[in-house]
Amino acid sequence: xxxxxxxxxxxxxxxxxxxxxxxxxxxxxxxQRPPVLFVPGFGxxxxxxxxxxxxxxxxxxxxxxxxxxxxxxxxxxxxGTTLRAYTHDVxxxxxxxxxxxxLVGHGAAGLVVAQALARYPARAGVLLAPVLGGWRDxxxxxxxxxxxxxxxxLPAVVGGxxxxxRGQLFSRELPSNVADGYAQRLGPAARRAQWQLLLRREPExxxxxxxxxxxxxxxxRIVSRPALERAARRYGGAPLLFPGMGHDLMLDARWPxxxxxxxxxxxxxx
Amino acid sequence: xxxxxxDAAAAATLWANGRPVxxxxxxxxxxxxxxxxxxxxxNLKEHGFGVDCFERETGVGxxxxxxxxxxxxxxxxxxxxxxxxxxxxxxxxPDSWPDYPHHSQLLAYLERYADHFELxxxxxxxxxxxxxxPAEDGHWDVTTKGAHGGTERTARYAAxxxxxxxxxxxxxxxxxxxxxxxxxxxxxxxYKDPAQLRxxxxxxxxxxxTGCDIAVEAAQNAARCWHSTRRGYWYAPxxxxxxxxxxxxxxxxxxxxxxxLRQWLFHRVLRMTVGDLPRFGLPKPDHKVYETHPIANSQxxxxxxxxxxxxxxxxxxxxRGSVELAGGRRILPDLVIxxxxxxxxxxxxxxxxxxxDTAGRPRLHLHMFARRYxxxxxxxxxxxxxxxxxLVHWQTVVFAxxxxxxxxxxxxxxxxxxxxxxxxxxxxxxxxxxxxxxxWFEVSxxxxxxxxxxxxxxxxx
Lengths: 270, 461
Hints:
- The complex is a heterodimer of chains A (270) and B (461).
- Chain A has a single domain (8-269), classed as Rossmann fold (3-Layer(aba) Sandwich), CATH 3.40.50.
- Helices cover 40% and strands 11% of the residues of chain A.
- Chain A is built from twelve helices and seven strands.
- Chain A has a seven-stranded mixed sheet, with helices on both faces.
- Chain B has two domains: 14-169 and 343-458, FAD/NAD(P)-binding domain; 178-336, FAD/NAD(P)-binding domain (3-Layer(bba) Sandwich).
- Chain B has helices at residues 35-46, 83-86, 103-116, 209-221, 245-254, 259-273, 300-305, 389-408, 410-422, 445-458, and strands at 14-16, 19-23, 28-31, 51-55, 123-125, 127-134, 140-146, 153-157, 159-162, 184-187, 201-205, 224-228, 235-236, 239-240, 243-244, 295-296, 310-312, 315-318, 323-325, 330-331, 335-338, 364-365, 369-370, 376-378, 383-384, 442-443.
- Chain B has a five-stranded mixed sheet with strand order 1-2-8-7-6, with no helix packed on it.
- The chains are: A alpha/beta (270), B alpha/beta (461).
- The interface between A and B is medium-sized, with 30 and 31 residues.
């Protein structure tokens, strides 16, 4: 990818600021490890990471943060939200952390983080079950969602909100009352951003050449295994797979396994 | 954490002129920890280089740090470019800050930048560079000493970035009779606070952004204020059409409008928002917009309209108790402030290294590459029509990639260097810029960034 220097459109039209929800968990004792910023995907808020991973990450010595994209969780809303606005939110939070951060994006926020990596020199990037969009993967994920949950998916065709069901996000190991509780907390993403997910161009190359890890599950009902492999190949690696888990790796029954693997990977690299 | 290697155990392996030279191997030396030095360090680190930075002050921020004795900032100084044009491209300023941050916010921003990218461990604070000499093999011998005394020591580096700033060495104008003048005379660099103006009869000389800011403060605080300018200027408001004016201006770039059309539009907008300057008693600009360094000041014309500020022409000479203006008119100020700018100064370097000509002007390609020294870059020697940080960011990305290219692809590097060292002199402005002692490093941010974009792709490994 060619380096882009001139961004007249962005300079002439800065993204409208909103209030952003950022939750944090600080490790005890002296901080040596880099901060980790978790970015939940479409429909999810910071709560999705605060549930399990945030404290777990801090307990392993990493200052941990989870944010909500605009229009999600307790973050503010702004009209005309686009993928660029989401990317702006991530870069703003990352640059506000005391030290160079690791960015972790889940689902469609995998694409948001991939774009943020081109705008902020992160220490490392982790894409969790990423929906990197584009017509092929986007349509495949959309088709799978349509087959499984036509009532929740069809409105998205005409620009309505996409509603996901627990069967699409979690494995059967997660008790159904817990899974339903999570599914009820999901909200809609911005309409324009949903469309951009299908129509988007390749994200720009990351700045500062950070290592990028792709994590997912072969049994994910939204992101297929070939899509995970393609995503990982883009960053010169193979995906780290956790069979038997659903799309929401951070909420599913066996949530400690992927986060421990990610933190081990970070430890090994520093 | 880098081991800086200057401890007693580090043995000097080289000698030059009978003095030990500490070999710092492939490390790069950065002179100055202001905005340009910080971004140079960060980008060199990001490309895998070890860096040592020497800073004569005890903190980062250079001229933006008001605690530093050479800092030119005054209490009320705000940015004149809005945030999108001011911030580093990969480290945005907080959304919660205003369009035009205050200088203390800018210092906080630079301090946060230094902490975020862990640059401070690489900086030798309170250490002044006294001499820089080219050594064999493209290396550089950098001699430093404590800013408050101490012994000199010399270290050898594989490459060098000069980021010593160009807004700290005041430029004093010459006038007949100035030495006999009985009033107080100061350079704008000594102006800090409106209390210095209260109740005084003030003459401000110079229509740079600083001169205009001080004239406005004098209009608010002094008993009387004259503002002397060499010619008529365009005073661009900070907001046009309800948005920061530079963002509106770049909209015209986005639409790729030609220069003449942008100038026509700009004139129309100024005419509608600021008005007819001669009606205010201000001289009519003798040039089009974009032909002088832009002045962003919404208040100057406003205060002229309120009588607090009297625009006058050039100063001809000083008398014991008065100042004579062009046309023979005399005024009686008791304080004269010269907002006449600063001169780039490289006192630690032999002039021929940068190819400095008789007019004191370095001959640099892209305002950064010394044509005879591929391992030397000057960072931030620019007078852009917009914020400077993003320009220096890309300058230093170019330099870091260039150093990598030399190492990994010597043939391509040789080709690039042949083009660079032989490149014809040129300017990077939109319109032909009127003559001044600084016009030679005036750049248009779009024209210059396009050139850097092309170069950064050329030197990509």
